[in-house]
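Q: Got a minute? One more chain.
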Amino acid sequence: MSATQLRRPLDDSDSDGEPSAQVPQKRAKTAPATDMLGLFASLGLPITTALTKSYTHFSAHTPDTTGYVLGVDEAGRGPVLGPMVYATCFCPESFYPTLSSLGFADSKQLSEEQRDKLFAELQLHPQAGWSIRCLSPQDISQSMLRRSKYNLNSMAHDATIHLIRETLERGIQLRKVFIDTVGPPLTYQKRLQELFPGVEITVAKKADSLYPIVSAASVCAKVTRDAHLSNWVFAEGPQSTNYGSGYPGDPSTVRWLKESVDHVFGYPGIIRFSWSTCVKLLEDSAAKVVWPDDEGQSNAKLLTSRLFNTKEPTGQRSKFFARRRPITLATSL
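A: Always. Here it is, folded:
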């Protein structure tokens, strides 16, 4: 199948070539209403444990001998709190028409109920598989605030590369990979094509609207992030969970941020401390902190400059050096 054949069919009225916003109506067998927490537990996802470290999860899948198509998308790139989740969905090219008929669309166009049903329905089809890379807010904060900054684009690229590489290592013969872009599509595509020369890579804007396999990945990512947020376990102890979507423009999120800041400790680990929204609120509402390490580094620089200063000292020599005495080394106890 060509990349064109793997695209979502266009509606007749889409003369500008944009994909139809309508979700395909044809559906395969419908999954029954599912207890999502029970489903996540059966899949082995750590939804009800404190998310302090990032993790990767692959669905159980027995590789077919035929070529596969894989899509990559993310959820939670912009919010000030909670994880960022990258996800893949993959299936044999022969199964792709069936997957395309299930009703997957850009997760932002679907309701929470629709996303949950589609994710549950995906588990009914062993021909398809999926994986996620869940980046914890603490790891995001530490990466972006460290001295050698590891920015969000780099994290996104590395998460995508990690998921594709591990998929190949599991014996899945990828032929085509479709990715919703982060940054300039052609630059990103060239880099990935060099890393995976045996796979046909397509990086595109709005790929989650163009390719059903990317739409399926989008749903996997969004469902996982939402599940973590709605069942968040605070490592610091019980806290209010009325934080809304986590986006800085959400009134519920803004209200929670203002009400939850601690004068001394700031925020719990659900927050991405590198976000400007958080930085501003901490500057306005929390106590100012002076780190002793900063003073120590300044003193170290001063000491180094004195040790390696070749100019003659202009001040008086310290009495310590003027009265120095011979030092006797102890040779025995």
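A: Confidence is low (pLDDT under 50) at residues 9-33, 303-310, 316-324, 327-333.
Q: Perfect, thanks.
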